[in-house]
Automatic annotation (TrEMBL):
Keyword Nucleotide-binding included in the entry's annotation: no
PANTHER family recorded: P450, PUTATIVE (EUROFUNG)-RELATED, P450, PUTATIVE (EUROFUNG)-RELATED-RELATED
Keywords: Heme, Iron, Membrane, Metal-binding, Monooxygenase, Oxidoreductase, Transmembrane, Transmembrane helix
Sites where the protein binds heme: C433
Protein location: Membrane
Topological relation to the membrane, as annotated: Single-pass membrane protein
Annotated protein name in UniProt: Cytochrome P450
Family classification: Belongs to the cytochrome P450 family.
Organism: Steccherinum ochraceum
Biological pathway: Secondary metabolite biosynthesis
Cellular-component GO terms for this entry: membrane
Length: 507
């Protein structure tokens, strides 16, 4: 038992600690922000979709750095690239971790992927894998030349069924990631691996929806046994975990088998498995970095590309200018390829502007503070969620004149504004997206081919402008896609149609 004296000392130490902490917090309060309700804070005011618009609205009152209370958890919203880089670059040691979401991370185990992994040795190995194999344009183009056939297949699919545009785009980007990662050749139409990959991605997206699982709000629920009434989320987690592991193992084992038989096609996985410095202890890092590519690449790139085509429909004079450039550089007798890229500055500007106007990941990548910190006199407790509002940055009227308009010409002046791939749309700091080159190359080849071969134009019932409000043209999800929309799509000429159909001889 404690003596009375020890007890008195302990109580005094506790009082002194809490007094110090309160006076510290008085001197260094949390960043300003809406008060919210008791217990829930502002959680009920954050909409499930288009939350970036609500965050922007609050920023008009509280500035480009403010805080929210979400069920007792502090979230800081940042809508200035300068402040964001202070966190993600200058203070990267404290702000490179991802939040530990109980459902996604503790129960399903998505922290086996790069996106949710803590910044440990495994994560470094992942990042090395990516930069070795597609960190540069030259390295990437080696992979990509293999996949020109995939882009041509998409053109054929669009010609067959222009109304199925969204599906053709998804099929293309998914096939592309599976081909680049595993050398896997998907079947046109239904393909087992695409279906599995789609299921896993849908499940993953479900776990990212704020409030979808009670356990994310009350983390201690994760300790409930699976049979306990109300713990159905545990069975869901098990199902998601099994599918995720299947997605990780099936293609990886397939490549290993093919390598043994000497029939494997070149891919991210074969290159790393056959690298000189490969050893069996790297196998797990390789497998988990490979499975991440599908999850991180296919849906984002599809959303970006689809958005570009919507804009080409809404801005016919821009489309015609891009097509005139393609006609000059490529001509009608062949399909564009990577060697044309440097000679297509207007098309490149169209892609940059589409990336700025249609931000596919409007909230970027969330981070969590590893320990307590002070910024500009404000207290940032350990575990605080750091949420960039990328959408707002890319639509800042101080930086981009007429920010809601599609103006590719803004990128063709001597001193263009901050490019969306510089610290905005692909994140920044240690956890910056490693797929920038791959994403931009994919969108480039898809755009060059489509615009060489097809016209896309408004018809009755088509949207009239790029309305980004809740009732507009986008779905408002974390990875934001255009909603299905009506358009006319037809080959630009008989020659273009023949070029598209020429693929039939190669299948
Ligand atoms: C238009 C397409 C894409 C967009 C808009 C996009 C955007 C992003 C963003 C905003 C982040 C979070 C960065 C941060 O926290 O600062 C991220 C992370 C990531 N992206 Fe992408 N991405 C795209 C395509 C790709 C592709 C093609 C790959 C293929 C490798 C990829 C792989 C990843 C990975 C692995 C991470 C996690 C990095 C980490 O946490 O260390 N992404 N991406």
């Amino acid at each position: 038992m404690f003596s009375l004296e020890t007890l008195v000392i302990l109580v005094c130490v506790c009082i002194a600690y809490f007094a110090y902490r309160s006076s510290f917090q008085l001197r260094n309060p949390l960043p300003p922000g809406p008060k919210g309700l008791p217990l829930v804070g502002s959680a009920l005011d954050v909409p499930e979709k288009f939350s970036w618009l609500k965050f922007r609205e609050w920023s008009h009152q509280y500035g480009s750095f403010y805080s929210l209370n979400l069920f007792g958890k502090t979230m800081i919203i940042i809508s200035s690239p300068k402040i964001l880089s202070e966190f993600t670059e200058k203070r990267h040691l404290n702000y490179s971790e991802r939040p530990k979401l109980p459902m996604a991370v503790d129960l399903v185990g998505y922290d086996e992927t790069t996106v949710f992994m803590p910044t440990n040795l495994m994560w470094k190995e992942h990042r090395r894998n990516y930069s070795k194999l597609f960190g540069t344009r030259a390295a990437m183009e080696k992979f990509f030349e293999m996949e020109v056939l995939g882009a041509r297949r998409m053109m054929r699919a669009i010609l067959n069924d222009p109304t199925g545009l969204a599906g053709s785009i998804r099929h293309w980007t998914t096939s592309l990631s599976l081909k680049i990662t595993y050398g896997y050749e998907t079947k046109p139409g239904n393909d087992d691996l695409i279906s599995l990959a789609d299921t896993v991605l849908r499940q993953f997206t479900h776990t990212q929806k704020p409030g979808a699982f009670m356990v994310d709000l009350v983390p201690s629920l994760k300790y409930l046994p699976a049979w306990f009434p109300g713990s159905g989320f545990k069975r869901t987690a098990e199902l998601y975990r099994n599918d995720f592991h299947e997605m990780m193992d099936v293609p990886f084992n397939m490549v290993q088998e093919q390598l043994k038989k000497g029939v494997a096609k070149q891919s991210f996985t074969t290159d790393l498995l056959s690298a000189e410095d490969y050893s069996a202890d790297k196998s797990y890092a390789l497998k988990t970095s490979a499975v991440t590519i599908y999850g991180a690449a296919a849906d984002t790139t599809a959303g970006q590309y689809h958005g570009l085509l919507v804009l080409m429909m809404l801005y016919p004079e821009v489309r015609k200018k891009a097509q005139q450039e393609l006609d000059r550089v490529v001509g009608p007798d062949r399909l564009p390829d990577y060697s044309d890229r440097d000679r297509l500055p207007y098309l490149e500007a169209c892609i940059s502007e589409a990336m700025r106007l249609h931000v596919v990941t409007p909230l970027g990548g969330m981070r969590a503070a590893a320990k307590d910190d002070i910024y500009d006199g404000f207290f940032i407790p350990k575990g605080t969620l750091i949420q960039p509002n990328i959408w707002q940055m890319a639509h800042d009227p101080e930086v981009y004149e007429d920010p809601m308009e599609y103006i590719p010409e803004r990128w063709l002046v001597q001193n263009p504004p901050l490019h969306p791939h510089d610290g905005i749309c692909f994140g920044s700091g240690r956890r910056i997206c490693p797929g920038i080159v791959l994403a931009e190359s994919t969108v480039f080849i898809g755009a060059a081919m489509f615009l060489s071969l097809f016209d896309i134009y408004a018809v009755e019932g088509s949207p009239k402008f790029f309305d980004q409000s809740e009732n507009g043209i986008l779905d408002g999800e974390t990875i934001c896609h255009p909603k299905p929309f009506k358009s006319g799509i037809k080959p630009r000429s008989a020659k273009a149609e023949a070029l598209i159909k020429s693929i039939d001889h190669e299948l």
